[in-house]
Amino acid sequence: MTTTTMTQKGQVTIPHAIRKALNVDRDSKFLVRLDEKNGRVILEPLTDLLSLAGSLSSNVTLTDEQLTKARSASWGSRKK
Q1: Residue 40 in 3-state DSSP?
Q2: Beta-carbon neighbour count of residue 14 at 10 Å?
Q3: Contact between 19 and 25 (Cβ < 8 Å)
């Protein structure tokens, strides 16, 4: 456990050990929310969707025609 101080601009430094444990760096994005019940501010690191590219593998292959048909079916079901 460690302490940190808020600057005049409302900025708070996340200690190095916590940044390292969360694997976040200076350009990381966070969801910030207030836990009013417990009087806490909660920071949740957001994962960049592009960093997930290739993380899921599948042996399923679809043709362009099959993908187009699936997209059309999906969009059509949203209009109902």
Answers
A1: strand
A2: 15
A3: yes
State which CATH number among 2.60.40, 1.20.120, 1.10.150, 2.10.260 fits the domain covering 10-47: 2.10.260
E strands, 5-53, are: 29-35, 40-46
pTM here is: 0.53
CA pair distance 42, 34, nearest whole angstrom: 6
Per-residue pLDDT reduced to its tens digit, 21-41: 988 988 888 999 999 999 999
CA distance 74 to 53: 22
Three-state secondary structure call for residue 32: strand
pLDDT on residue 16: 94
Q: How far apart are CA 38 and CA 21, in angstroms?
A: 24
Can you tell me which residue has the tokens 């994005």?
A: 29
